[in-house]
Specification:
This protein has a single domain (2-194, 208-402), classed as Growth Hormone, Chain: A. The chain is 82% helix and 0% strand. Helix 12 (217-246) runs antiparallel to helix 16 (305-330). With 403 residues, it is mainly α. It is globular and about 65 Å long.
Amino acid sequence: MLARLVPDMKKLIKNIAVLSICQGLVMTNGAILITASSLVGYTLATQKTLATLPVSTAMIGTLIGTIPASLWMRRIGRRFGFMTGAAFGIMGGMIASSAIWIADFWLFCLGTAFLGIYNAFGQYYRFAAADSTNEDFKSRAISLVMAGGLMAAFLGPASAGWTKDLLDPLTFLGTYLSIVILAALAILILIPLDISGLSPNDRSHSGRSLINIARQPAFLVAMTAAMIGYGVMSLVMTATPLAMVSHGHTFSNATIVIQWHIVGMFGPSFFTGHLIRRFGVLNVMLAGSIFLCIATTFSVLGTDFINYWIGLFSLGLGWNFLFIGGTTLLTECHTESEKSKVQALNDFFVFGTVALASLGAGTLLHLFGWTILNLGALPFIAFTSMATVWLALHRYRARDIGQ
């Protein structure tokens, strides 16, 4: 059956395997940043409200890198583009490690910004999966590559725990040196990646203007779902380690919660693509909003370990359905020649939202507390749900008129 959907299955399997492993490595980078950076920031910062700033500068690095990364890959292709991103990961890990060595908070923020640029390139692994196949298999290809992030659930928080005191008394120095090794490994793994670049005709024509593309209802909802799904997830996840420690939980408990959160983020990816094909992308996105509401409910009901565990796991599930759903919906909104600028625009707004959410996480937690921080996400989740229902009704009316 798959052979009928995808003519060159051997090449597709190889590409998905490479992209999936590299997705896992870049998400491990992200998991380490979330697990450790706010704690390193708290140690290095003289003003403790800036503790989550290193996470925010990582998100800002991702924001700054999204558009250049897409345009760079349009020029030189996916393989060498992703290798460029991994090189930023190596530099970021080295800068962050040096900052811990000399106890320089602002240099540490610079290092995490470079790691954020690495993440910006890594966000295009999911789009590269879509490039590798045809329309019938796109949602499953995207989903399978995203499933590689499940590696980060075990390698990220676990490696932060293993390496935290490896070079004692310089806490977390070994953790950020491990990022250097993992990014170098990604470059080696990318060597066999084989994705065709744009044809000369597609490269010479940019297609419709971004304004015309952005007017499409599907584009607006796809970007909204990804923005709010990722933004809410980033806000709550960034604050979680600090909130847990402040409520008397150990760092070990915090790593377990983050680990299961990442399982929730990427574990469903093995079947999210199948769910999209069976039930429709908009229904899967609505399910994502429901899971975010469940996450908020458990988070505000208490600060016991089980509340954090269920809340963050549900938060990951909601992110998965909204982000993969939004990515799949976005691929319906552009032609081959338009994809670079459309993907860049989408990810710029998505990670702009993520940067704002992570930047505000520490301040909101400090000023208002864990409960208010979570309740503040509800209006945004409701807006996403309404936008998804609106598009479903819009498409239903369009089909009705067409008949």
